[in-house]
Amino acid sequence: MVEISKEIMADAVRILNFLENPAYFCDKRTHLLMGNELMLKMFGLNEKMASHILGKNWIDVLLDQNFGVRSIIPPAEWEKLALQQLVKIRQLYPKESILEFEREMSKYQEFDYLWQKSKELVSANPIFERGVMKFDLAGSTKTFILLAYHYPTQDYLIVEYLPADKGTTDFLDLMRKEREPTEISDHFVTEMIRNYSLIRKLRESPIILMNCVKKEADCSGNDLINALRTIVDKVIGGFEPNTNFSIRSSVRLKYEILRMMAYEGATDEQIMWDLGFEPDSDFWAKRNGDIARKPRFPYTGKGDYAATSRASFKRLKAQAIEDVRWRIEEMEKRTN
User: Fold this and answer.
1) Which structural domain range is residue 150 located in?
2) Which of 27, 92, 214, 281 is the most buried (most CB within 10 A)?
């Protein structure tokens, strides 16, 4: 498997999830590193099959009958695609890597013919029709325009398949409607709340690409940033207790945790102190011993939420984040 940093993979995931068309992520030597849901679905790949493909180069995928990719590509298009990839390999691989590649691919009967032809094409300096690709899908030929760009460095590529005609557009629309409801992680929810006032970071949130956010933007006339903020406001507002009494209840504490995270940019230590939990023993010492302001929600023993430990705070915060995630996912389901 090709080694790749977690940071680059995270960037690739964010971009692929953003794209509404089939797309994949590869390195400059055409090793397939990741495909979005529509890409896998278009090629008829389940998770198990995809796990076998990732890390392999395009030629391996094209020649191996077990993957089934070849069955959806017309013969002339298949050979053109194979030759394009082989020419790239001849141009980009160092000599020792080419020798290793030849040994590895010799197991495929058609490789020798294609490899020799690619050598002739390199000498002739061919100009391929790189921008168009055709696949036999759902009983007819679908035509795509390929858009490739380097991201996040020159060592990697994201390749997107754009529909070239109405039939292909309708085919993709049908696949999009058949997708499972969008799921988001608690990590993304936490970052969204923390970055409520940070436009640049909020713009990078995968949640901003959800249909419920786009619908909010359409209905309100706002951009996606402000539409996402409106959704955050609605969700956090839904936690606010109906009573004005400052009871130290779990519902009140969840609301205050989310409110302080989003609107005050408070740290966990600040929130813990304000809500009567036990922050780091050095927290206030580091602030010159300034502890004149008392917590707003100290434990009084009068029917209050009794837990005050750091572990209890983390547990309550995790529950609040999970509740936010669930509410946003429910919004998304209703939108779809």
Assistant:
1) 6-177
2) 27
Quick check: 310 and 278 in contact, CB under 8 A? Answer: yes
Listing from the earlier edge strand, what are the strands of the sheet with 132-137?
A: 32-35, 23-27, 156-163, 140-150, 132-137
- Quick: pLDDT tens for 226-278: 999 999 999 999 998 887 667 888 899 999 999 999 999 999 988 998 898 88
Q: Are residues 209 and 307 both part of a single domain?
A: yes
Residues 104-153 pLDDT 10s: 898 998 999 999 998 888 776 544 444 677 888 777 888 888 877 777 77
- Are residues 219 and 113 both part of a single domain? no
Q: Which of 142, 177, 212 is the last residue of a domain?
A: 177
The answer to whether 290 and 269 have CB atoms below 8 angstroms apart is no
